[in-house]
Amino acid sequence: MANRGECDFRPAMDAFYLCLGAVPLLAVLLALIVDVSWTGAGPAIAMPPALVFLAVLVLLLLSGLVLGTRYSLREAGLFVQFAFFSSVTIPYADITSVDIVNSVQASAALSRRRIRITWNDPSVPWERRRDISPRDEAGLLALLRQRVTPQAWRIEAGGMPS
Length: 162
Prior knowledge:
It contains three helices and seven strands. By secondary structure, it is of the alpha+beta class. The strands form two sheets. The protein has a four-stranded antiparallel β-sheet. A three-stranded antiparallel β-sheet has the order 5-6-7, with no helix packed on it.
């Protein structure tokens, strides 16, 4: 085993997720611009306070997702922090599967290409799983490969599904 110190990874973010937050924000900005430029030249577009509040809320939520999501390789296991929604430490010995998937399901991943970690948790009668999408996917996989048993790997050394 190589150095088992703590290693932090930031999430990758697809354009799809960026657009989820950018579209409402841009709509509000566009409405404000139209309201300012058309005032006096015709009917002004009134900006409902609820719409402004919603746009600010979406912006704060997205920034919280990006800034609050991280993946850490620690002594105790893989630590996954998903903003303020959830956090979990997955013991390396309990990991039963490491795979690459494409998904848009809600998870601690902000990209469609994800590393799916499946593990046994004695507190529940089913297998648990968590999807992550680190910016440095190859780096995380290389370090994780040193900590997880070879039987759990569903991907080859190059990072592609086997």
